[in-house]
Every structure is written in C-alpha cells, then in structure tokens.
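Ticket #4471: structure export looks truncated?
Reporter: QA, pipeline team
Priority: medium

Steps to reproduce: submit the single chain below to the structure queue and open the exported record.
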Amino acid sequence: MNIKRPLCLFVVSFILGILIVNAIGLNQFLIVSAVILLAITCLLKKLGNYKIIIFVSLTFVIAGGMFLYYAEYRYSGSFDQFYGKLVEMKGYVDSEVQNSKNSKSTFVFKTESVIYKNKTFKVNNSILVYVNNLTPEIGYRTKISFTGVVEKPKPATNPGGFNYRRYLASIGISGRIYLYEASDIHISGQKGGGYANRLGYVIKNKVIEIVSYSLDKNQAGLLEGMLIGYKDGLDENAFKAFSKAGLTHIMVASGMNVAFIILPFAFIFKKLRMSNLSANLITIFILVLFVFVTGFSASVVRAVIMGIIILVGRIIMREPDIYTSISAAALILLAINPYTLFDIGFQLSFGATLSLVMFYQQIKTFIDSKYIPGVISDTLAATLAAQLGVVPVTLYYFNNFSTFSILSNILVVPLVEVVTIIGFIMVFAGLLNINLAVIIGYINNTFLSFILFVTEVTSKIPFSLLKLPTPTFGMVLFYYLLLIYIFKARSYCKDKKYIKHITIAIVVSAIIISGVRALLPEPLEITFLDVGQGDSTFIRTAHGTKVLIDGGGRASNSKSEFDIGESVMIPYILDKGTKRVDIVIASHGHSDHTEGLETVLREMAVGTVILPETDGRGLEKINTICREKNISVIKCKQGDRIRLDNETIFEVLNPLPYKIDSFAQEDLNESSLVLKLVYRNIKVLFTGDSGIQSEQRMIKQGLDLTANVIKVGHHGSPGSSGQEYIKKVQPYYAIVSVGRNNFGHPSQFAIDTLEGNGAKLLRTDEKGAIILTSYGDGFNVKTMLP
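Actual output as written to the record:
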C-alpha cells in the first residue's frame, strides 16, 4: 500500500499513544494493545496491503504510550521516595539565575546525588530552587549542595485548573524547593561543560544589553521579545494590552525569526561563493545556536527543526514536503519529552503552522481583489488562517477572544519583518560600535512606537477582549472537522451531490448530539473548590440553576498579590460552560470567603446576591459592586427558605435576626449563614465559619440538622464541630475546606469528633476539589487528587 505522507500518520499514532496512556494508565493500555495485536494477527489475510501500515502505526501508538510512561518515571517516579522529606542534595546550577525585584532568585538545579538517612542515592533529575538574597558567586554550572524539603508539584486541583505538575514535566522539572537564604547553599566548585548553553547565555545577554542601551524601555522590551523571546523587558500591563489586541504572537521569537536568519545567510554565502555543503552546515550550526539563545522556545525549536530539514534537503538535492517536515518536527520534540504535547506553546505553535499551510492559499484566493493592496490581503489571509487553527485552543486554556485582532494585525504584522531585520542589523552594529546601534535604533524606535500605539489603542476599545466559556471537547472536535470539510473535503469532492449529502449529515449529527444531550437527565452537582485556606462551593442543580457559596480569598493580614477571583473562580466558572451565576451567596464578611466573590460580581453576570442579615461588616465592597451593577441583594435569617428550582431548596438555619442575635453582633463567624440544601432524599449542610455557640443554639431550638454531607465549620477549627452537634447532623461525608495555615486547621478535636461519629473526612488540601453528584438518592464522590 502506498501512502503519500506516512510520517504524518505515524506521528498521529504516536500522539494517540500518549493520550491513551495519559487517560487510562499503562496497564490498561498494554492490555488494549495486546488485544488489538491479537485481532490484527487473526485478520492478517483479510487486511491485505494494509497490514504493514497498520502494524507500523500500532507500533507508533505503543511507542508513544511507552515514552510517556518512561517520562512519568523520569520526572516523578524516580524521585518519589524523597518528596516531602528532609534531604541533602548535591549537584550543579543548570540554568541562568533569574533575579526578581524582591531579591528572590530562581534557578534550575541538576541533582547528581541525594543523601537521605545517611544513605547516598544517585539521582539525575532537575528541580526548581527558590532562594532569597542569592550571591553573585552562584551561577550557571556552579557545583552546590544544600539541605531542604523537595515539594512534589501538584496537578490541577480544580476542574479546568492549571496543571502545574504537567507544565513542569514539559520543561523537564521534577519538583521545587524553597531555601530561606543563600547561606543555606554550599559552593563546592565549578562544573565543566555546557559550552553551548554558556555561549547562548552570552549572546542573549549581549543582545539585551545592546537593545536596552539603544532604545527606550518599552520599545526595547518589545524588540527583545521579537528577536530572542525575552519577555522580562515588558511589564504586566503591556502583556495585557497585547493580549487584548490579539498581538501576543509578535512578542515571541518564532518561525519568522528562523526565516530571517536563513535567508540573509543564504544570500551572504552565495555572494561568497561557498559550497552548498559548507553554507548549509554553517547555517544549521547558527540555527542550533539560536535555539540555545532563545531558551528552547517551543515555536523556535519547531521552526529550527523544520529549517534544518529544509537545509538537509538542499544538501541531498531534495525538496522536503511541508506536512512531512511539520510531522518530523513534532515527532522529534515528543520523542525527547512526550509531556511537550500538553504544553500550550507547543499546541499553539503547531496549530497555527498547520492552519497556515492548510487554509492560507484558499483564503488568499477568496479575498484577493484589485481594490485591496497585496500586503493587506497577505496579512489578512495569514491572520485569518492562523486564527482559525488556534481559536479553540486559546478559548480552552484562556477563555479569551480578541475581537479586534484582525484590525490590529493588518496594521502591525507588515511592520514585524522590517522591525526584526532592522533589529538584527542593530545588534550586529552594536557589536562593532554601540553608538552605531543607537543611530539605527532611532529608525527602529519609530516603528516600535507605532506598534505600541496600535496595541494600546485597540486594547482600550470596549469589548476588545471577550471572556467566553470553555468549549467542550465535542465542540472543538466538531469545529475542526467542519474546517477540514469547508477548506479541504469540498475541494476533493467533484460531485455536488456528495457535498450536499455530507453537509446534511454534519448538520443532522450536530442536531442529534445536541438533542440527546438535552434529553438526558442531569444530576445535582456540588463542587467544593480548592481555594487554599478559604471557602468556596459551586452548585449546579439538576434543573440548571447555578449557585456560588463564598469565593475564597486572602486572610485580612496577608501580603500576597494572588488574586483568587481572577486565577481560580473566573476560570472555573467559565470552564463550567457559563458566564452567568444565578445566585451568589456570601456566608459572612471575612475576606477568605468574600474576596473571590468581588471579582465574580465585577466580571460575570449575576442574578441575585444573598447575604446574612447583619450590620454589613466585611460586606461593604460586595454591597457597593451590587449597587453599581444593579444586582439585587437579599438578606436572609433563620426560618427563610431559598428556592433554587422545583425540587431544590435552601433552608436557612442561622443567623437569627440581627437585632436579637448577640452572638452575631460580637463575632462575624457566628453570623455565618448556615444553609441546608434539600433535594429529593438528600441533604447537605453548609456552615460557613459558624462555631460551637451557633451550633448549641440550633440544637436548643430543636432544628432538624440531619444531613448526608456537612461542609465542616470554620475549616475544622477546635471552636466548631462539637460532639453533640455532629451527632445531630449524622453526616456520612464531612468536607473540610482548608489550605496551608498556621492555625492548626483542621484540629485534631474536629477530626476525632467527625470520624468518631462515622463521617468520612475529605479535605481540599489533600484531595483538591471534591465533586459530589446525586440524582436524589446517595452521592457519587470524585476528587481531583487521588
């Protein structure tokens, strides 16, 4: 059997193997593979000419799965016995030291040996080291040792959250360690080698030095990103502006830079009358060096591999196929580290490249007109083609859609080539004379200023950046199949009758899938989110009402700049496929419950806000936002009932009316809303930060406290979850929303009380988000961490 591009099929098979092992694990993967192999062996005669290609494809599937399994062992498994333990580590610094403004330094440490319980283990892993006030003597390849506790990176702890473990694995990192001072590190010498990295760092720093000296600060930061992918020169506001304008792709080194390197050198070597072999080998060396300069950026590595394939083709006098070149680049990267598949940069880079190759020409043909200048139609076609390929990826990961990206790209992209070429000329001139670089910089400064001006103006246009819900996997798959059908399948179908039949089949399939999904009954879903030392619960009733109770946040005395609302709450809600929350509830006025709600109220559509009937302490910001956005606010007290849908209600058990509630007047925790959710035959008790005082009062009042599940009060503090109270509740599951803290939460008292009364304890600091689903009788429990 003759296949035109076999490598494309094999790389898809390799990716499939990675995805299968990631989804079901190695053991199940091997069983499935063995069954398929057996089936193919039995059908050998019937397969005919297809048997070779099927065998090779299956081999690549198995190889992909095994490569991922090996990578998992390499980056985590071989280090498992040391995570969370005090160990002495010996090795060397394997990266440049990154220094931040607050005197904190970060570097990659390559372990050579680990000493644990007086035993020495040979371990070849990389970890991230964070340290304060690092001395200049410690730099790349410095041999050092230190004692500390290595943290195992966490995967995503909330649905749709950032998988930090997978991200670190994609760049070859196994863990991280925090050291208080540089004095904790002992220097033992300097390790040789690493010459390519050293040269790359020298060139990068020289480029930054010349560019920074020759241009204004913002212009220099932009050009550094465009030339070598260095992003520290631009501040956070600039990044946000480029994101809103849909221009983030110009801020990073990419395939365009590789082309700007190959073409000038090809011209120079031709003028020097160098042999084909010598010219291409030197160019390959320069490209490899550029990879080291840019820090192995995924887009640069992909482009360099493709460039090398093209140059090797020139050496052997053969023109490579573009799809085969892309496949070869992907296969090499994934063979080196299969976790690269899950890297966002890898997906965006290959998605945009494939989309350009597949769709550019047809879009260009469609929009070509004598009234549109060629440079505009080229830019427009390239922008549309690239955007078509990456829109689902950007929506899936970032929930962002830039509405004015086409306009900003038409204005800016034609200048990128000019700016980049002048930038390279400026750097080479700076090596000879820095004043010459400054003169050339005056020219480039004009173009860079225009790019920054366009970015700022388009980013400030109302609705320039839309926050959209996360598309489902089915939606993404349908989108890509539709694109392939529109741009490719139709061109291969000569008979219009077949085009009509395929179109009808696609539309009918979409309607059937949507209809079946709409008819299937939905369960009640309650997600206790991991928000660290805080509280947040998202409820979706069986009939679709969406309720958010508390939103996590920082303690009132915290100096952290982490925005729980922007980083956790908004992404999670968008990942649920919605931009609207029907009911937002603040249990009481402490910031570790309300801070995330403030962001939700500002950024999303909210139907109603429910607050406890108190004097409003701690809830001032929420009330202000509600007034500004005209959101209705309801204050609740004991005896009230909140109907969520025809089958689901909240019974309000606390607080009492504020004027007669002495506990609530003295202590915000005792003013917490205590809500009992009732749905068919199941009950869930939400307690806020209420303590033993409120618990005793509810018992004395004879309230029905029984519940299948209790959200444990005040993060499991010793001042909550009294013995008598828990006996009245009789919970089967006890959920503790807790993070790293200095209060000893959850207390041993609370743990003993809950477990002593038969409750199964589930903690968000150990299990991540805890998801309960129910059709009205019992619960199905799922946790983000095993």
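Status: closed, not a bug. The export was complete when the record was re-opened. Leaving a note from the reviewer for reference: The first strand starts at residue 86 and ends at 93.
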